[in-house]
Design goal:
The chain is α+β, with helices and mostly antiparallel strands. The chain has 11 helices and 7 strands. Helix content is 61%, strand content 9%. The longest helix has 27 residues.
Length: 243
């Protein structure tokens, strides 16, 4: 008898895939013993969505001949079936994907970023802004993994987080929540220390609080970083903030 959609959803109850920090599969909060290559397989599917098997094999085993890469993919799928329920990985006609109702931390993160950046929601309430801030600030994607495709996905997610944090900084400032706005701006600066916008936002927030010393300290730190890393000075826009 084939598994119904309700059966598949029930089988996945309590399962969670975490990709922020170390890639981990949890069941009711307890780690499932999934090997590294299989963790990368489900991570790839979570980040890129359903993909042809050839694309998946070539991405995970890029320096391996096609037939051996596909054989390795088949072995990984067999390994996953031994420790994960049916329906966790969906096998289509020549493609693979993850169950759409699976609990995945990166999916939650992307949802919050999309909510913040959505043009249809120009104003955020304080509750929604703080929920988004707590969801967006966190560990790096797939910590300790250095495959080329991981680096591409990490940069893509970092850009999304960065733009959402900058928007949150402005919205929290608009709501009069300066302390939280500073937290968001500092998180954005941590993601990209050489980016000018988070520093400009931080300086403006400190000045709005009357903290000229903190504003100057933020500027001086940013200027030293730019001179050390890029041998350039801050733009006139940032310089003008302290005049």
């Amino acid at each position: 008898m084939s598994m119904t959609a309700d059966d598949a959803a029930s089988a996945l109850t309590g399962y969670r895939l975490n990709l922020l920090g170390d890639a981990t599969v949890l069941h009711d909060g307890v780690g499932v013993p999934v090997l590294r290559r299989e963790r990368l397989l489900v991570s790839l599917l979570a980040l890129q969505g359903s993909r042809p098997r050839g694309h998946i094999a070539g991405t995970l085993w890029p320096e391996t001949p096609d037939d051996r890469a596909r054989a390795s993919l088949r072995q990984s799928l067999r390994n996953l079936r031994q420790v994960l329920p049916d329906g966790f990985v969906l096998a289509g006609s020549g493609s693979l994907g993850l169950a759409p109702d699976l609990d995945v931390d990166v999916w939650d993160l992307r949802h919050h970023c999309d909510t913040v950046l959505s043009g249809s929601a120009p104003r955020l309430t304080l509750r929604r802004a703080l929920e988004a801030l707590h969801a967006i600030v966190g560990p790096e994607l797939l910590l300790g993994e250095f495959d080329e495709w991981v680096d591409v996905e990490r940069r893509r997610l970092q850009r999304q987080r960065l733009h959402a944090l900058e928007r949150l900084t402005r919205e929290l400032g608009r709501l009069g929540e300066t302390t939280w706005a500073i937290t968001a701006a500092e998180a954005a600066s941590d993601l990209d220390p050489l980016r000018e916008e988070p520093t400009a936002l931080l300086i403006s927030l400190h000045l709005a609080e009357g903290s000229v010393v903190e504003a100057r300290r933020t500027f001086d730190t940013f200027r030293r970083r730019l001179r050390t890393e890029l041998r350039v000075d801050p733009s006139p826009r940032v310089l003008a903030l302290l005049r």
